[in-house]
Amino acid sequence: MNQNSLYVCKVKIENIGFTISLDASFFQSVSRPIALHNHAAYEVHVIKCGSYVFNIDGREITLDDGGSCIIGPGVYHSKGNALTGNARRFIFKFEYAGKNGKTSEIAVCLNRIGPFCLFRNSGGEVSLAEALIAEIQNKPLGYATNVDNLASQLMLAVLRDVAGLAGAAAILPRRPAVRPTDFDDNRAAAIDGFFALNYSREVHVPELAGLLNLSIRQLNRVLLKLYGVTFKQKLAQIRVNAAREMLKNSGMTIAKIAENTGFGQTGSFSAAFRKLTGLTPEQYRSASRRQAD
Prior knowledge:
Layout: E1 7-13, E2 16-22, H1 24-27, E3 42-49, E4 52-56, E5 59-63, E6 68-71, E7 81-82, E8 88-98, H2 105-110, E9 116-119, H3 125-138, H4 143-163, H5 187-198, H6 205-211, H7 216-227, H8 231-249, H9 254-260, H10 266-277, H11 281-292
Antiparallel strand pairs: 1-2, 2-8, 3-6, 3-8, 4-5, 4-7, 6-9
Helix pairs in contact: 3-4, 8-10, 8-11, 9-10
């Protein structure tokens, strides 16, 4: 798949409709750090092998073989950095919508998801993800029908993990349930994936507009509606958040971090970083090290 491709499955479990979005991070593990970000959809990480460390809502979380997590809408998080060379995981996003006034066990289960949930031993998600990938890539006879069937099973396996949570298993206090986003609107997932995968290079508005089949004017309206910022501001936020992770967790020079986050020149990097954080990169790194000590 192209790194900006998005495969979308629309399935129904009881009276709840799910939109499940699979981008490049489902089909192959991303090797470089991904910036802190949030989005309108739920994000699910399933660890096949190795270990990953996440920053979720300001907390450092480690997941190992067979573990998984669900990150709620609006929660700032990193994609998770691999701690071992053989690490492999699957990432997908989902949104849901149900009929007004109707409740079900599935709806009750969804309402239990707080800012995030962790599961040390997931129930069959790895094998289902692998089967789903094989079906999409090989496209055998009737594959589209089976893709929806496998996506339904994957979603149900995740929901059963949530249903099995003990009262203390959710790591953070629950927030009020987030209103589900439009069932037919997958733009936020595509936008988040685009920025997360491309922030380290020079990117331009027409690329994202083309991905979403929108005019530049329409794209600007969508970005303002979903995030309250312009394309340039959104890109700067993602780059600065990635730089924060590198400043805290690596020994790279300021110049190298500027290069790796797409700013190029140290001067433009420092100016953008200070504008969004109130600190220079050097000041931020020093403060982070003092906190760690």
